[in-house]
Design brief:
By secondary structure, this protein is mainly alpha-helical. The chain is built from 15 helices and two strands. Helix 1 packs antiparallel against helix 2 and helix 5 packs antiparallel against helix 6. The chain is globular.
């Protein structure tokens, strides 16, 4: 079966953009294509139930649009998640089974190699490692705003973070975080001020900052290359830097509220989810005092 034509999808995208954010509209179009491609059933994966929910939402929105005809697949059926999980209500959270932050020696070695590399993807890694920002948030940042920010005494810039929410952030401070931002700007010295960091990483206008696109893939491959050279253990995932920053801040005595602010979490519950490792390490240090 073929997905709807590009002309119909473009008309659908324009219609959906009036009702949803740009990010949600792009996701709707992508999920609708995949829904038809896989006949309403996504490939087998750990997130199959979630993908089915996404497909059903895209299917329902397409039908509500009403201008593009019927999709060639039935409405996706989302099974009871308990049946999918073999009667269990939920899987054991991964963070309780394995440590997800980097060992400090591995973290330091990755940072050292990223500094020595000096390319734009490696410098994006360096910023993530020093600030704990999401990779997408760094990639969406305008190069011109960063250039102006490092000139300001307070270093304030506005980042468009996950969910299209503008957030004020500072690229100054005089510490390692500011050094990382300056290294990133140096790697993007040839990029026009009107570009985003993602466009600078790709060295072309119009590059997307969304996960799975070119800029994200270049940063991910840079981490895999540096991690392989440094013989870092565990899965080389970009989000491990974000977890590592939260754990290291807690070890340095930062409060949960301070860590929530640094991580740009809208909910303290999200921050608490990051702190399992930190609490375990702190408990081990306290128990080590016995005797």
């Amino acid at each position: 079966m073929k997905p709807p034509s590009d002309e119909k999808l473009e008309a659908f995208r324009r219609w959906a953009l009036k009702r949803y954010s740009d990010r949600s509209t792009r996701k709707l179009v992508a999920d609708l294509r995949a829904c038809v491609q896989y006949d309403g059933e996504p490939p087998e994966s750990a997130q199959r139930v979630k993908r089915l929910r996404d497909y059903r939402w895209a299917w329902d929105v397409w039908q509500a649009w009403g201008g593009g005809g019927k999709v060639a697949v039935p409405r996706p059926v989302v099974p009871d998640v308990r049946k999918v999980l073999g009667g269990r209500r939920s899987r054991e959270p991964k963070r309780l089974r394995v440590a997800v932050s980097f060992e400090r020696a591995d973290y330091d070695e990755l940072v050292r190699r990223a500094e020595a590399d000096g390319t734009a993807p490696a410098c994006v890694l360096l910023v993530i490692a020093r600030t704990g920002l999401r990779v997408g948030d760094v990639l969406r940042t305008p190069v011109g705003a960063l250039r102006e920010g490092v000139k300001r005494a307070d270093g304030v810039v506005t980042l468009v973070v996950k969910g299209e929410k503008p957030t004020v952030y500072s690229v100054r401070g005089g510490g390692l975080a500011e050094k990382a931002w300056r290294a990133l700007l140096e790697s993007l010295r040839a990029a026009p001020s009107g570009w985003t960091v993602a466009e600078g990483v790709m060295e072309q206008a119009g590059a997307s900052a969304e996960a799975g696109q070119g800029a994200y893939e270049r940063v991910r491959r840079a981490l895999e290359r540096l991690g392989a050279d440094a013989d870092v253990s565990g899965r080389l995932h970009l989000h491990r830097f974000r977890r590592s920053v939260a754990v290291y801040l807690a070890a340095a005595g930062a409060t949960e509220a301070q860590i929530q602010s640094a991580m740009i979490h809208t909910s303290p519950a999200t921050t608490r989810g990051y702190m399992d490792e930190a609490r375990a390490l702190e408990s081990a240090r306290l128990l080590g005092r016995i005797g």
